[in-house]
Amino acid sequence: MTHYDALGVEPDASDSDIRRAYLRLAREYHPDGHSTDRPAVREQAERRMRDVNAAWAELGDPERRAAYDRRVGIATGRARPIVNRPEHDFRPYREFDVDDDDAWRYEPDPGNPATNPGRFLTMLPPLLVLAGLGGLAVGLTTQIRPFIALAVLSLLLAAVLFLGAPLVALFKSREHENR
Asked: Do 26 and 7 touch, CB atoms closer than 8 A?
């Protein structure tokens, strides 16, 4: 298996295609993502990650890639395997989507209510911002100090919820995973 095979790209792939393939495979096979898997699956992911890292070390640098291509005969079409081990159960290469770079972001699982922050918690911060801004406008024009204080308090609570809602969803998700 060549380093190109390890990354699932063709030898004529561009540098950006190789980088995208490496990032996609690193996210898929990184040992931290398999820490709760069975030992056999975890070991297979670690082996696969070592192959992916070795391929990236050679193909990620243009000079090392050119030397590698000469060494394995890519320029002449006589590529020879560099790893003499049985084929792993790899997932087939799928075309990399540019939007996959956002895969690190937290997305609640629609089928798992424990990872969904809930409609009320999602809608409360924007409603508090609107109420605070409206109350602030009314309070400043009428010069009613308690009304202004209530509007400012509403805006502060909205800011706390804007920051806190994702944390609540994350902790709920972690609690569900640990059960």
From this structure: no
Long-range contacts of 118-125 (CB under 8 A, 24+ apart): 121/161, 121/165, 121/168, 122/165, 124/158, 124/161, 125/158, 125/161, 125/162, 125/165
**Residue 19: CA count within 13 A, CB half-sphere:** 8
Shared-domain flag, residues 93 and 123? no
Low-confidence ranges of the chain (pLDDT < 70): 75-118, 165, 169, 172-179
At 78 the pLDDT is 40
Query: pTM for this structure?
Result: 0.43
Domain-ending residue, one of 62, 79, 102: 102
Mean pLDDT score of the chain, rounded to an integer? 77
Domain count across the chain: 2
Q: Which two tokens stand for residue 89?
A: 């159960």
Of the residues 57, 81, 102, the one at which a domain ends: 102
Contact between 106 and 166 under an 8 Å Cβ cutoff? The reply is yes
In this structure, the answer to whether residues 91 and 131 fall within a common structural domain is no
List the CATH number of the domain containing 27.
Answer: 1.10.287.110
